[in-house]
Every structure is written in C-alpha cells, then in structure tokens.
Amino acid sequence: MHIRPFIFCLIISLCSIAAQDRPEVVAIRTELTIKVDGLLDEPVWATIKPITEFVQRLPLDGGEPTEKSEMRILYDDNHLYFGFTFFDSEPEKVRATILNRGGWIHRDDKLEIALDTYLDRRNAYLFEMNPLGTQDDALISDESLPSLDEWAWDGVYISEGRVTDYGWVLEVAIPWNTLRFPSKDELTMGLAVKRYINRKNESAIWPHIGLEYSSDVYQVSQYANLTGLKNIKRGNDIKIKPFGIIGSQKQILEDETISDNLGNGGVDLYYGLKSNLTLNLTYNTDFAQVESDNAQINLTRFSLFYPEKREFFLTRSKLFGFGNSRQTEVFFSRRIGLNQDVVGGARLFGQIGKTSVGALNIRTRDDGDLPATHYSAIRLRKDVRDRTTVGAIITDVSSKGVRNSVYGIDGQMRFWGNSSVSAWYSQVDDTSLVGPSAASMIKLDLRNDRYFLTTGQHRVDKDFHPALGFVQRNDMVGTGAIMGFTPRVGDGEELIRQMRYTLYIRDVKNLEGLSETSIINGGIDAIFESRDRIGLKIIQEKEKLSNGFTLGNGLEIQKGNYRDRKISLSARTNQSRGIWGNFSISKGDYFGGNKTSWAGSIGKQISNHLTLYGSANQNIIFMSNQGEFTANVYGFTAEVALNRKWFGKALIQYDNFSEQLQLYCRINWIHTPGSDLFIVLNQRYDMAGSKSSLVQGTQVVKLTYLFQI
C-alpha cells in the first residue's frame, strides 16, 4: 500500500523519554596565551580541577578503567582548549604510529571529543586524535554513526600530542569560527569524551554512555553539559578559499588524440549570515584533487553505487539526505557535474530555531553536447519534540525544455536507547511523464546491545526517476526484516568477547503483486577479545527475471525463474597488528550456473611513514550454456607520510572486464590549517592485447589558501 502522510501524525503523537540529570563541566576563561605544544606547561592548566570520572564502556560496561585519565577545559576569545593527561602503567606500549590526516587512527590509541554546540541533543561535531596529535573529524547527525561523507568533513583545529614516561598528553585548540553555535551571551553545549586503549581493546568514556545505547559516543542525547562559556564572539565569520590549478590532460580515442593544457582558478566563500546559518558560494568549481573511485565489476542487474568524494558537496551532506541510503535517494550530489563542468553555485545550511535548513543551487556549463543545467534542492527538518523530527525536501533539475522535480516529506522518532520509527514519502513530477510517480518507506528499528530488530516496507513506482537522485530498483514493493541476538560472552579475559546471530528475510514484489525476489539468510559471527572476527552465512535467494540482462563482458543472463543457494565464510584480523588482513570465500548457484568467489586484502605498516596494502576479488563463474569465465578486480595501495603536513597516496587498480589499469597518485601538503597543495597524477591504460596503451592521462597541481576574516 502507499504510505500516507497520516503516519507523521502518528510519529509526532508518540511520547518521548524525559530528560535526565547530567554531569557538568565548567570551562574556565583565560587571558593567557596558550601555546598548543602537548606540554600543558602554562600555569593556568595547574589551577583547574580535572575531570577524572571516566567510566569503562568496554570490555566491562560501568567498570573502573584500568588507566587514569584527566581532562581540563579552557577558552578565550578565539579558541576552546582541551588539555588531557592519559596515564598508562606501560607507557612503552602506547600505540602512536599514524601521521597522515584522516588515516588509520583507529589502529592507535586515540581520543574522541564530541561537541553538541546547539544543545539540540541530536547533532554534534566529532574530533579524533592519536597520541601524536594526528587528526580526523566528522559530523554526527541524528545520533548515528557518521557516514563516509560525514567523515570527509575537514574541520580546522590544532592538536599536539606527546608520549611521556607516564602515558601521553594531548593539547587541543578548536577555533570558535570552526564551529556553529547560537548567538547568546552565555552558552551551554553538549560534551562527550572517549579514550581508547588499543592494546587492551578498552574504551573509557565521560560521561558514561552505557551499552544499552548502541550508538556509543554518537548518542548525543546522553552528553554531559559544558557550561561557563560567556561572551563568545564569532567576528565577521567570513572564509574565502581561492584556488589555482595548472596541468595537462590527454585522451586517446580510436581516431584522434585530444590534448589540453589546464590552467584555471576559482574560489569558495563561506559567510556566516547569522551565528547558526552559513552561505557557501562557489565559482568555477574544480575537483581535481578528488580521489579515484574503487574499481567494481557489476554481476547483478542493478546499478552500482559510487559515493560522493568532492569537498564542496560533503560539508553538511547528511542534512540533504532523504530516502533509503544507496537504494532510493532523492538527493544524490554525485549527479551534479557528472558529465559537465560546474560553473558555480550557492549553498545555504544551518539552523533557524529548531529547524535545520539546507538549500542548494548549482549551474553547469553548456558544452555543446549537453545544455547548461540548473540543479536545486531545499531541505527542512524540524525538531517537534524531544528526539522527534519531521521534514520536507524539494529538488529540481532543469535544462532547455526539460524539467524534473521531486517533493517529499519524512519523519523520525527516536526512543529508548537507539531505537526509532521512521517514514518518508516522495513524488516525482517530470515533463516526460503523464502523471506523478512516487516512492515511500516505513521502518521500525528496535536496538540495544543484546538484541536488534529492523522491519519495514519500501515501495518504488515504475517511473520514479529523480534526476538529482539515485534509484537502484523501480517497480517494487519490498517487505523485510533483519533480527539478531548479540550477547557479550567475555569481560576481557575470555577468548571470545561477543557472538552475533542474525536472520534476514526479504520479499520483493512488483506493483502487480508478482514476487520477483525472495531472500532468506542466516549468519553467525564470533568477535574475539583480540578484535579478530570470523563468520559463517547461509543464503537462499529466488529471482524471477521478466527480462534478461547483459554483464560487462557481454555474457547474457536469460529471463526465467532462478533459485540460488550459497554458503560463505569470512575472517578478519585486528587492523592494529603489524600485518593485518581479511578473507572471505563463498560458493553456490548463480542464475542457473554456479559461482565461486573469494576476496581478500592484506596490509602492513612498514613504519610511521609507510603503509602498504593490497586487495583481490576473484569470481569464477560457470554457465552450462556459455562455459566458464572470471570476473576479477585487483588493487594495490601505498600510503606515505613524511610528517603530519606532508603525505600522499598511490593506488593501482585493474579489472579483467574493462581490461584497463588505473594509476592514481596524490601528494598533499597542508601548508597552513585548511589550506593545501595537491599534486595529482591519474593515468588509465588499455591492457588488452600484447602491449599496453595509454587511454587517458591527467597531471594536475592545485593550490588552495584559506583566508579567515
């Protein structure tokens, strides 16, 4: 059935959990100059009584941490300062190896600082650092684990760490103009801090967020209060980030070679209209520093999904999210500028009272083959009760004589620890369609540390094609559930820490009521105290193909009814080991034939300055009427870091469907916080035949500089 708007009235009418007493820490104002060097040697630090009431979360929830931690907080007109002293009874075993920003910090001891600056108990900033001060950061939305898009947010802040003979010390300065917060004379923010002791697989958190809250430090509604912040002024809050680019590009076609010299410039501007509302303007946008996509081979009848990697679209990207991620997304920024250059545009994002606001308008250039196109989106989300939101979205794509618009409403109510009920409904209006076409979803998610159940129904009409969205499957009504039992069987001393038993059931019918896909699978996983993991899964899938489809190598899968069964085994080691890896193998049916697949990767950290890892994915497929063939993808990556400002990445990929080898190399120098020099090489070679030949080659140098006013 169609999901009707009355479901949102039901969501709003449900009761929410009352607020509870919270721990509190008072930030102390200082007029002294704080040098961020990881020493905490300014006299003012010694005058502050530290927060020491950290509580163990893992392996023994609510237990006393095995090592003592101290936190002190200062602020002045320009920065919010944190000073941490992390004692360790075996300081020589503190893990501190990662230098490159946004790298494998989870392989080290680390600290996470989460700040709910609006005190909305829903969203927060996350800052993550290891004992060297190496940084990563993310945006937390709706108390959920940050997506890859949100981890790509790069906040500007300063951190320095030192390993000592009693543990490690970390000093952090977060500029006020990196954060968004209300314009008030006195501020209260939400705060949570978590320390991770890698070799013990132990986490200690303040305030205590128990295992009943499965979102861990992302459970924003449980944060402590950070008070004492008075008379904070953000100034004009203007950021200007120009760029310049030089380079060359060559593309070799069958009958001609196209060569271009690249020389260009552009600018991004961020202007704080209010303390909680930002206007972002871009002109002549260039994405030359963007990482290469991972190679994939499609062995299904559905489109592959490639995530967004461009910085301009990643900031507050979750705010624009609407629909089912990677299945039916109304807003998918990767559609913008996919085949055309971006001339420029504007984005507006922030909060007005209890309403989150996002708006976007981008224009691409007329290139002769494709006319200039305007991409627009407006997104609103309002907090109507504690942990309850309702929202709406409008998207529009228009060019000469063509227009595609989408309208949608959604709502979510979070309750208990990390449970929720949510629903959305959207409708496409396109000049090529006789009438509107719709998609919708309703979902119930019950979750704690021992049990989970997610069930719902997802519907997509036959002609639902949002031009600014991503739809994996049309003409469907999918009903399903996944449930699990995840008991913790160890407390730090046993071999196994946690077991995971899961059952997944799904049935997909077309809009005429005919069943097209039926899936049932069960799995069991063991998670060891060492953080190694093994798993076993048994899967049965029935497919009714009304139409056949063709694979990338030209092989045709015929229409018909198929029942495929397969079994898979997987294993993964702790990535903090000197050598780590993962491996999976599966064997079973494949559209009337059979398929054996295996995938694996292995990595080694040679030193603080060099990490190497490789991967392989091989599929051996036998079809009774077409013989045997393989579908293979191979990759090798090297990450280099001279220090915390100079680092690079090289990636080599090959797949035997396209028979192309791709070489991607990027060197990044952070010459000042928020400002970069990129040197990028991207080459593609045709490996078919006896000799390799260049298909496309690009060499680019790009310089950016951030001015803050």
Textual characterization of the structure:
The chain has 709 residues and is mainly β. It has a domain at 31-230: Immunoglobulin-like, CATH 2.60.40.1190. It is built from 4 helices and 43 strands. A hairpin with a 4-residue loop joins β11 and β12 (202-206). The protein is globular, with a radius of gyration of 26 Å. The model is unreliable at 1-19 (pLDDT under 50).
The percentage of residues in β strands lies in over 45%
The second-level CATH architecture of the domain at 31-230 is Sandwich
CATH topology of the domain at 31-230: Immunoglobulin-like
Number of strands: 43
Any low-confidence stretches, pLDDT <50, length ≥5? 1-19
> What is the count of helical runs?
4
- Radius of gyration (CA) equals 26 Å
Q: Which CATH class of the domain at 31-230?
A: Mainly Beta
Distance between the termini: 54 Å
Sheet of most strands: 24 strands, antiparallel, barrel
> Based on CA inertia axes, which overall geometry fits?
globular
Mean pLDDT: 90
- Given the helix and strand composition, which structural class is it? mainly beta
Helix content: under 10%
Provide keyphrases for this structure.
disordered N terminus; 709 residues; mainly beta; Immunoglobulin-like; 8-stranded mixed sheet
Summarize the structure.
This protein has 709 residues and is mainly beta.
Write the layout of secondary structure elements.
Layout: H1 6-13, E1 24-26, E2 28-29, H2 43-46, E3 55-58, E4 69-75, E5 79-87, E6 110-116, E7 124-129, E8 135-140, H3 148-151, E9 158-164, E10 167-175, E11 186-197, E12 202-206, E13 224-230, E14 238-252, E15 257-274, E16 277-283, H4 311-314, E17 323-324, E18 328-329, E19 342-352, E20 355-364, E21 373-385, E22 388-399, E23 402-415, E24 419-430, E25 437-447, E26 451-460, E27 470-471, E28 476-485, E29 496-509, E30 515-528, E31 533-545, E32 549-550, E33 556-557, E34 560-572, E35 579-590, E36 593-607, E37 610-623, E38 627-641, E39 646-655, E40 660-672, E41 675-686, E42 693-704, E43 707-708
Parallel strand pairs: 1-13, 2-4
Antiparallel strand pairs: 3-12, 4-5, 5-10, 6-7, 6-11, 7-8, 9-10, 11-12, 11-13, 14-15, 14-42, 14-43, 15-16, 16-19, 17-18, 18-27, 19-20, 20-21, 21-22, 22-23, 23-24, 24-25, 25-26, 26-28, 28-29, 29-30, 30-31, 31-34, 32-33, 34-35, 35-36, 36-37, 37-38, 38-39, 39-40, 40-41, 41-42
